Every structure is written in C-alpha cells, then in structure tokens.
C-alpha cells in the first residue's frame, strides 16, 4: 500500500512521508525515529546534532544565490499520536503505519496516520535532500514528545539555533496561517478507595460506550463531539441514583490530547432491580443518542450481563466520584473576545481509570490566556478535591501571543493570494503549537505556522488531503525563494 502513496505528487514529499511512517515513533519512545533522523542527516553530509533531550537539528547551507537571505528554522515534531480502532490488531511499538489512498485522501488502516506532524517532517527532509530547490540557509529542527508534554521544545536550549525566522509546519488547514496558539496544563486527580465484597443476589453488567468520533482535544473541542467519559458517567450516575448500581471498574479514554472515544465499566446491580434497570438504561441511552444524532451518528452504548466481579467500590467514594465528574467542566469554557471564532479556554476529561482501589482522572486544560488556563484548572481542582482527591498540575506550557506585525507574515500572505486568488485566514489556533515554548529561549525569532489539510488528527479517522499537499508544497517552494534579505 505504501507504493501507492509513494507514486503521489509531489513525490519528494510523499516518499519521505512513507519512509518516516515505516519507523515506529510513539511519544516518549522516539529512540528509533531519532536514530533514523540522525542517520538521514549524516548520510547527506550535513551538520547533524542530537541535543541533550533528544531533539535533532540538521543544518544546510544556502543554495547558490541565496546566501544573503536570512537563516530560517524549519520545525516539525517527530512523534505521533497512537490511536487505533477497538477491532484493529496493531502494535505501534513494532509496526510501521499501513497507508492507502482513498480518493483525495491518504488514510491508515484502522489507526492514526501520523500526518500530524509527519507531513511537516517529510517536507523538511525533502528540502534537505534536494539539489535543485532554492532556499536560504536552513536549520531543520525536529522536536520530540510534542504530543504528550512538549518536552522537546521545553528542553531546547538557547544558542543552538541562529535563525531569524521559524517556519512551523504543524497547522492542519491549508488556507490558514497561524500566528498564535493556546498553552496547556495537565490536571490529574487521584485517590484511593476501599473495596467491598459483592452483595449476595447481585447481577453483573458490562457497560460499553463506543463508536464516537474522537479527535483533537484542542482543534475539535468546539464541534459538539461526545466525550465517552462524560457519557459513561451519566449512565453510571443514573444507575446509582435509581437502582443503587455499584462500580467495580472503569476504563475510559486514552491520551490527554484525544477526545475519548470509548469507555468500559463493570458494574453490579441488585437482582431485584434487574429488569427495571435494563429498561431504564435503554431510555437513558435513547435520550443520549438523540442528543448526539447529528455529531455522533455511530455512537453505540451496550449493556450486557457479565460475570460478577470479586469486589466493588465503596458507596461513599463512588457517590463523590460520580458527582465530581458530573460537575467537572468538559469542552469549551470561554471563547476569545479578541479573535472571532477562536476558543480561548477549554478542558478535555481525557482518561478515567477506576480499578483495584485506585482512581485516576486525567485532564488537559488549554488556553491562549495564562490566567484563564489556571482559572479553569482551579475549577477542576476544586471539583475533585471536594471528594478527597489529590490534584496535581503538571507539564504547563505557555501559549504563543499573536504578532500581527510579523515580517514573515507579510511574505506569506501575498504569496498565498497570488497562488490561490483568495486571502488566507490569519488565525490563532486552540492547539499546542511549540512556537510559544520555543519563543521563551528565542524571543527575537519571527514565527509563523502553516501546513496541508489534515482531518481527524489524533483519531483513526486521520486523513491527509492529496490535493492540499500539492497546494502546500507549491506554497513552501515560493516561500523559500522569498525569505527576506539579511539586515
């Protein structure tokens, strides 16, 4: 299937993407892709650096006639989000992504595609390898761990780069030019609970929520998509309130930056309520599916009898858990007052695990305003602390403040207009681009972000537009030829 992708135009881009996608590259396990990039740079005879946190920097001198242009940093991240459909058998640690062409789209078989941010990486690789593309001096920066903490960008020290302009290739709509982004913080609530024996005459059930779209917890947070953890909590709350349902286990969601698509809970109910419980649940399910019929047409909720668990959660802690998750904010918290249609602040209740006396509730809170980010984080903290959780904030990173007077923005906009006959959308995005973090050690660097159209990032529905990639490649080529002169 990769050969079908390799035959696409522009071949330089798609061949490098296929090479990259053959290398497993989960976040925090980037050893193989780091080695791959180091080998790539060295084989080209270019200065290749692996910094102390794992980022790879490859430097290429200007092509003939471009020596008097400003040095640019071309930046993308090496890691990718690993998500797969429940019925897909795939080992992200050992297998390369299996791609195929579907009309105007490149997709993966039941998994994320890795176009986020693999197409950006492949773009830079193709330019580094080329002998006929005109470009100024390039410092290619390949960061690690963007998807689960941005530790690569955070760990990049000042002085390693000398570029004046940074081109970040991690935007996912080809008619957008990003000049700002949201920061984020991980909010985690944990506590222990006592387990109790299962009462006599109980009946066991497994409740499954699946079939949701999922998606990027920043870019897709305003689309009204279902959150499997919130939907599951609603079912459990109703069962507890009306029939004394008790929880044995919950396993919901996966990664903080992915809207949760699935959740599974093992519960018990008193045998005398068996028939009434099932009837009531079907009514609740009908209501939920009606609410989400437009945004989540494939939502499936199953309630099936199962073996009795050996232990269940004590009712006092269980009530606190269900009420806290109900109270905890999920989704858009505040829209920007300064930029139209921009989500300013949001939260994703990403992962809920209840098992063996331990509770873990994992959130990702985002905002382009630091004070608003921590306002929402403290609201979550309050909800969870009220039922006895220990709440920690970790991995906080800053947003990227928009610069409407950017010199490189003045280069990109007229090129886009000339090539496409329309104006690009100059925006800030509700996602965690690395520009804000990189700017802390390189405050004078002029930064911009753009990229080809990618849909469904962070979900198995991720797909990259072939026609958009062609449009984007043409855009990149002309940008390189028009980098401003050195002062």
UniProtKB/TrEMBL annotation:
Cofactor: Co(2+); Zn(2+)
Gene Ontology MF, one: metallodipeptidase activity
Gene3D superfamilies assigned to the protein according to its UniProt record, in alphabetical order: Zn peptidases
InterPro entries tied to this protein: Peptidase_M20, Peptidase_M20_dimer, Peptidase_M20C
Domain Peptidase M20 dimerisation: 208-296
GO cellular component, one term: cytosol
Keywords (A to Z) from UniProt: Cobalt, Hydrolase, Metal-binding, Metalloprotease, Protease, Zinc
Catalytic activity: Hydrolysis of dipeptides, preferentially hydrophobic dipeptides including prolyl amino acids
E.C. number(s) listed in UniProt: 3.4.13.18
Spans traversing the lipid bilayer: none
Any Pfam family the entry gives: M20_dimer
Similarity annotation: Belongs to the peptidase M20C family.
Protein name: Cytosol non-specific dipeptidase
Organism: Flavobacterium saliperosum
